[in-house]
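For the sake of clarity, the format in which proteins appear in this thesis is described at this point. The fold follows as a row of integers, each naming the local backbone shape at the matching residue. One such record is shown here in full, so that the layout can be seen directly:
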Amino acid sequence: MTSGIFECVINVSEGQRELLLAHFDELAGESLRDRHSDVFHNRSVFTLIHHREALLRDVRALLHAVYAELDLRRHVGVHPRFGVADVVPFVALDPNEAHVAVELRDLVAREMAESEGISVFLYGPLDDGHFRTLPELRRHAFGEITPEFGPSAPDPRKGASAFGSRPLLVAWNLWVAGIDLPLGRTIASAVRTSEVRTLAFPVGDEIQISCNFITPLHTTPEYAYEVVKSALPREARLTRAELVGLSPQGMLDLISSEKWEMLGLSPSTTIESRLLR
């Protein structure tokens, strides 16, 4: 079912202007399987999945529109970012085709640097044998790490972009009331492992514990939920959980179905269910 099918998860620095986001939805074409937008982060995650050529067509159309329409100088949001098209990872749904995802990453990264005049960094496997992580890139971009493509300094309006190749990843948030940001950061640190990346953000009157599950078929949101719940003071409470984008069905299979709703998960937001549409 997944052989020859690839995913591109485009993180865009815009999550508030719905008419513009709807325009981006149209340009993403038939590859668009999900779009998650957050007004506090002022960020949207577009999940595109298709066969190679159709995916390339729709990814190019969306990226060109993002570079044309957005201005990083006017962006305000709680999520870290260095570009209007901030992070663009390619994923092979069949792990045996991971090398093709690297080829797609490199192809589109080079094209966008040349056509848009932007600085482009790569993460994931590199030509020199090194595996660069996205956190590593965010820490050292334009310092120890120079762009693979494009100019050596970011464009004032478009910023820079990180193009990646990675395995399946699940992004998931937990919203907490009754704690402050320092405690939220302490709790996020308690959740963090080599398989779970975490940050804490202020979102309105609450604190969001944001998690990326690097190995979602091994460590799931259930783990993070229990760690956060056990770390909360008596006066605090968990208000909701949300999936950002899509998850593999295999991750849900590791969790009792009775807990899916509590964790913000559903069979309707799996990659497999969206491919059937």
